């Protein structure tokens, strides 16, 4: 499927998920802002895909990223972030959502498994919704050798840029 065809509205995703479940497919979800894409994200999606048949990625809208990351974020606009993620082989569908947390749409999509970074733990914000629909939470460990995060990348860029200004 082409990259553009993988990007759907939330309402389209809910209908697709219903049909996939009726056909016996195990739906896996994950979500985040994925602002500056890096290898840690690739590993997250690859591990998430192994948990079922179809991987659906929810991307926080620009509005919701600003709500929880601050007025200077996101660095990349939502459509660009969705396009990058949709280009990945491991990702089947992508949609953009406005909520600060994903519980509302998790209750509608009803995944078999929801994947999250282990740093958020078993009691992550998604836990109540997952319990309500009987979905499994799969925590994915960060590779300690990678030590990547968007915030760390931004901080490094600032340090490098400030050094150039001082020279």
Q: Which percent bin holds the helix content?
A: 40-55%
Number of helices: 8
CATH topology: Rossmann fold
Distance between the termini: 48 Å
The count of β-strands is 5
What portion of residues belong to β-strands?
15-25%
**Name of the CATH superfamily:** HUPs
Task: Provide the gyration radius in Å.
Answer: 16 Å
Oligomer category: single chain
Give the structural class.
alpha/beta
Principal-axes geometry comes out as globular
Pick out the low-confidence regions: none
Q: Largest beta sheet: what is the strand line-up?
A: 3-2-1-4-5
For the structure shown, list the relevant keywords.
167 residues; 8 helices; 5-stranded parallel sheet; 5 strands; alpha/beta; 17% strand
Description of the molecule:
Helix content is 46%, strand content 17%. It has a five-stranded parallel sheet with strand order 3-2-1-4-5. It contains eight helices and five strands. It has one domain: Rossmann fold (3-Layer(aba) Sandwich). It has 167 residues and is an alpha/beta fold. The model has no long low-confidence stretch (mean pLDDT 91). The protein is globular. Helix 7 links the parallel strand 4 and strand 5.
């Amino acid at each position: 499927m082409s990259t553009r065809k993988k990007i759907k509205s939330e309402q389209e995703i809910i209908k697709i998920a219903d049909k996939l479940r009726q056909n016996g497919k195990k739906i896996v979800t994950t979500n985040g802002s994925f602002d500056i894409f890096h290898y840690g994200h690739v590993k997250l999606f690859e591990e998430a895909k192994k948990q079922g048949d179809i991987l659906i990625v929810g991307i926080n809208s620009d509005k919701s990223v600003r709500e929880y990351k601050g007025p200077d974020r996101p660095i990349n606009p939502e459509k660009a972030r969705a396009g990058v993620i949709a280009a990945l082989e491991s990702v089947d569908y992508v949609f953009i959502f406005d909520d600060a947390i994903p519980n509302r749409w998790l209750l509608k999509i009803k995944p078999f498994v929801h994947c999250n970074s282990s740093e958020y733990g078993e009691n992550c914000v998604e836990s109540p919704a997952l319990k309500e629909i009987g979905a499994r939470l799969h925590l994915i460990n960060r590779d300690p050798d990678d030590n990547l995060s968007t915030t760390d990348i931004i901080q490094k860029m600032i340090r490098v840029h400030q050094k150039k200004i001082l020279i």
